[in-house]
Amino acid sequence: MLEVIGAGASSTTKQDWHSLYKESPMATQLQHDLEGIAKESSAREVRPEDEKRGSRQYAVGTMTQLRLVIGRQLTFQHRNVTYMDAKIGLNLLAGLFIGSSFWAQGQNLSVASLQNKLFAVFMALVISTSLAQQLQPVIINLRSLYEVRERPSKMYSWPVAVTAYLIGEVPWNLIGSTLFWAPWFWMIRFPGGQRAVFNWGLIQIFSLYWSTFATALAVISPNPLIASVLFSTFFSFVIIFCGVVQPPPQLPYFWRVWMFPLSPFTYLVETLVGNAVTGIPVRCTQSELNILQPPQGQSCDQYLGGFSTSLDTLNSGGAVTAIDSGYFQTLSNGQCGYCQFRDGDQFLASVQLDASLRYRDIGILLAYVIFNVFLAYSLFFLFRIGFKSSKAPKVKGKVGAAPISATGQDHVKEETPDKRAVESQ
């Protein structure tokens, strides 16, 4: 065929096959058929629903996209055995390790047990850093898949993608945090009943907080390493200034006045620890008592009764004023033993926490979760949609397809046989 049309390296022809085809009856009939199809299409009445469907950017509506993409995300999480095993294993082992490290401290009434409960809660919160570093590589891989294949193909919109990332983690985080909570709570022996349900609910809210925050940072990070660095950097601030590592009165003034109330961990600690110790009596061990020698001729009741309450009064259910600090008892040798805390609420007040605000704190924590969700959508749009679109090259000129022609060459400059012969030489 190449030899006949003169397209070979050494072939020549005296006929212009392109011109012959354009002048042939076949080309004329084909052009006539195309024009007829175009006239028929323009004369056809378009229904409003067809016109609306044709103008849509995506093949299906947003709700259908959400249902399908979220279902796919949940299926993907279920099939990702390595990720699920790591998540479940870390939660379970961390709960066993922390719970056994503070075994039965919830039933202990000493001052040392108050500190142990505080650190048991703090260690439970720190585990979120490792869990977030498991989550972020998965989110980054899914985001890369969306940017390379699914967004250019107009399979679904970017808000649907972010929603699927956020919702896809919720069921497994609920399961994982429950597996952490069960050994952690019961091995430490925190108060049961309604307090146990309240404590479990707080752990679930916390799982929503760290997962939404980790997702917000993952959607803008180029790789898992950067995402891990960003998450660790921001979390170092909320961990350091929540009042556990350094009591609030000992924090520098600059950090104490704004970072302490800004940290979400402040409200988590206040709620979890407050739920565990509020209304619980404190009884100092012998080594925790401050030994005082009353003045000559005075008893411990006479010497300390003006600002504190005796242990006998507490045990008998006597009246106690709110301003009374701690309690005292008369030792066998006549000396006075003073304990700085009477109950768990006084311990909380020493670190500027208030258990009566724990229901308010739940609202604040939910507000942080909502803010993280808003942050995830905003950062994805700014860094993955808007910022990238502004850097894309702009094509100048008229947009649109060339008119359909039977020859397919109306918009291409016709080459003569002489020009092709020159190019072949």
3D architecture notes:
The chain crosses the membrane at residues 88-106, 118-135, 156-182, 202-220, 225-246, 362-383. It is found in: Membrane. Residues 64-275 form the ABC-2 type transporter transmembrane domain. This protein is mostly helical. Helix content is 63%, strand content 3%. It is built from 19 helices and 4 strands. The protein has helices at residues 2-5, 17-22, 25-43, 48-54, 62-79, 81-101, 111-150, 158-168, 170-188, 194-218, 224-240, 253-256, 259-262, 264-277, 300-304, 311-316, 344-350, 358-391, 417-424; strands spanning 290-292, 309-310, 327-330, 336-339. α14 (264-277) packs antiparallel against α18 (358-391). The radius of gyration is 37 Å and the shape is rod-shaped.
What attributes characterize this protein structure?
425 residues; mainly alpha; 19 helices; disordered C terminus
Instruction: Measure the end-to-end span.
Output: 21 Å
By DSSP, the count of extended strands is: 4
The H/E string reads: HHHHHHHHHHHHHHEHEHEEHHH
Q: Total number of helical segments?
A: 19
Instruction: Characterize the quaternary organization of these chains.
Output: single chain
Averaged pLDDT: 86
Q: What is the overall shape?
A: rod-shaped
Q: Uncertain segments of ≥5 residues (pLDDT<50)?
A: 395-404, 406-425
Percent helix: 55-70%
How are the strands of the biggest sheet laid out side by side? 1-4-3-2
**How much strand?**
under 5%
